[in-house]
Description:
Structural class: alpha+beta
Mean pLDDT: 88
Radius of gyration: 19 Å
Order of helices and strands: HHHHEEHEEHEEHEEEEHEEH
CATH superfamily: Oxidoreductase, molybdopterin-binding domain
Bound molecules: the ligand Nc1nc2c(c(=O)[nH]1)N[C@H]1C(S)=C(S)[C@@H](COP(=O)(O)O)O[C@H]1N2, molybdenum atom
Low-confidence stretches: 1-25, 27-31, 33-48
Distance between the termini: 45 Å
Helix content: 10-25%
Shape: globular
CATH topology: Sulfite Oxidase, Chain A, domain 2
CATH architecture: Alpha-Beta Complex
Number of domains: 1
Largest sheet: 7 strands, mixed
Amino acid sequence: MHVIRKKGWELPESAATDESVFLRRRELVKAMGLAPAFLAASSLPGFAAADPAADPTADLYPVMQNLRYRLDRPVTEEKWATTYNNFYEFGSHKQISGAAQALKIRPWTVTFGGLVEKEMTVDFDTLVRQMPLEERLYRHRCVEAWSMAVPWSGFPMKALVDFAKPLSGAKYVVMQTQADKETMPGLKEFWYPWPYTEGLSIEEATNELAFIATGLYGKPVPRQNGAPLRLVTPWKYGFKCIKSLVHITFTDERPVGYWEKLQAAEYGFWANVNPEVPHARWSQADERVLGTDERVPTLLYNGYTEFVADLYKDMKGEKLFM
Ligand SMILES: Nc1nc2c(c(=O)[nH]1)N[C@H]1C(S)=C(S)[C@@H](COP(=O)(O)O)O[C@H]1N2
Ligand SMILES: [Mo]
């Protein structure tokens, strides 16, 4: 069991499992008559992932890794990525993973509205089975200057945009997190602008890097990381990566996100990573790598310049980096 659980992402990316080995392992598991859910048994008691049988999408994972997206650093240990989180709905500190287990993730519906051909309400389990699932190793850079590198499973955001059928006038996609007072103690902190809202331009949302994560470390994504679906935009500061999505709206007006509403001088719409543009209160030149004492230099667009620089080449007057 422990041998099988020794996955590629527990190794430096340079040594990550290639596709054929990855597939073979999957076949082996099937041949042994073990449900993929068996693989997902978590070593962390009390976590949702410890009971994958309860998740109706557990059979979908693990999925094939897309080797196009490379890391320049080892993958962060699962225990760090799943116990050091930002999810203000459950508290304005990092140790919310326990409290987040209260998030009720079934049934879960996502609405599509605004400038779309037809408004829709879709059950998550139906939606995810229509999407092209893959795994990607991505870096993540929080605006607070910590970082990690993790294996997300999910699908390109472009597939979700295509599914929603926006009208030609749609220029932005706006996303909202569930806001449930029963399960989210953070919502009592009334000075925060709930519900958590974020947005992307359509060009960003359909850029190949923009990803909707439904899994993490080869299992359904844990609640504290934004179950059952969350945005991942690795070239932007982490606050853009909005969790536990319930509403997706297309508009012709740039939305104001949660952090921008709270503190516009410190957090903007574009929020692209740039080591040379400091936050109002601290430097962004380097970052602490989660699970280590190491600080490494921060990279322009978090290392994803080749994928995204073109999006911004004609936006001279915009505050692109905060
Ligand atoms: N709904 C919601 N989404 C959120 C946040 C939040 O507080 N609420 N925090 C953001 C921030 S600041 C970061 S760094 C990432 C953290 O994701 P992780 O906990 O999976 O590492 O989630 C982002 N998405
Ligand atoms: Mo963050």
